[in-house]
């Protein structure tokens, strides 16, 4: 059974699941140096994705389109070979507690000159199915709560078990976009108006708040305005909660909330305001989750939690939920945001057929490296891991490209810029070449067995989804990966992993005694990962590029000759 999941809107992607195994997920932003959050606006992208894996649309048994905004259904305007067409989809979330797996059946999906029928499940359904089916709980047939907190919805709590899932409750009346909206009213991303929405602001704010300090008086202001405008028994709050199906009115009320906050907090430092707002939301999330878990204590099984939706990328909130002692285990997939929605769409159809069974998957299921003609001015030679480790040990960064790209928004060693973490200047250098703000952190990638020695808790974290503190005795040894508040967005990798980055870390450890490197994504500013070495060479900001055993080294301009020609990397 081949199921093709399609996410058409922002973070567009095509995924294929065959007999319970993820064959691929191709995110649009990771193809052809596309912009971050690229949508699918032409259905030829679906045909091309299948063709790259030797498939024709006729080889697919079922197509599934992820749902989107709409009261009862959504609509998508896309191009096909025959011109513009309109496709219908399911709404953002289910309309009754048992309706998570209720589909809208559609027709008119034009692929390769042929029409195909399809199904569409609510957008939230894909978050639930992708989170649970990739979790360790699915493998052991344990039930789990599933928290979905996405941009345009209140945090929604579900209960999932082998035979089905159901909606339990909304935890509190705050949409996920509230975090990014805070950045549009305070701090370095403040905007004059309400338009020009930036999906990347939320992640940047998570770094920026390390510059500030929590002020309980500021927290109290947010608590008061939250009751007045969102949660309390006031006219403003009742009006806000009256139409939870319309994103624009909800977002407008959020902007009103922050304009009222600014009037009260105008003389406060923006970094303190945002740090305090972060903590206000964190406390609200943990306390309301604790109340909900107690309210649903009658549900049998282990106390497990899956986290999905865009807010699942907030490592501090994930850690706060894990450390609250409410759950035996907490799982966050590497694609909790919409980058996993195509996988979720395919999983939804799988679940309807087979129940909530585990998906056989690998995080390295993205696009393969593209071959291409390299620009002039680069030398090419074979390069062992030991030699590459010595280059890194000499404090020179390397673009590291290997195998298929990682899924989700974070570089995990497949499309990374790696560097020694021993120099405090390295973080500033990497931020400069990537046009990032000075306060942005650079993540460590560390051998899993040594992580507890360097970080607290240092528990396995293969997808950079929890917060860790750098132990005091290591902060001066690896300053480039220590954030302003002493934390680190850690990625761990097992010493026995077959991935090439593990082999490199082992060689680097042998040379230096240090089991970690700086790791940041290999990409142009505002675009997805480099699709191949040629794109990295054209960027030209890092002089060493390692691509599946071949080292490319930029020739200094003083050594270039007129006959230096282009190479082809194969």
TrEMBL record:
Pfam families named among the record's database cross-references: Carbam_trans_C, Carbam_trans_N
Keyword Transferase on entry: yes
Domain Carbamoyltransferase C-terminal: 389-536
InterPro entries cross-referenced by the UniProt entry: ATPase_NBD, Carbam_trans_C, Carbam_trans_C_sf, Carbtransf_dom, NodU/CmcH_Carbamoyltrnsfr, Nodul_NodU
Name of this chain's protein: Nodulation protein NodU
Organism (species): Mesorhizobium australafricanum
Domain of life: Bacteria
Similarity comment: Belongs to the NodU/CmcH family.
Domain Carbamoyltransferase: 2-347
Enzyme Commission (EC) number: 2.1.3.-
Alphabetically ordered keywords of this record: Transferase
Gene3D superfamilies assigned to the protein according to its UniProt record, in alphabetical order: 3.30.420.40, Carbamoyltransferase, C-terminal domain
PANTHER family, alphabetized: NODULATION PROTEIN U (PTHR34847)
A GO molecular function held by the record: transferase activity
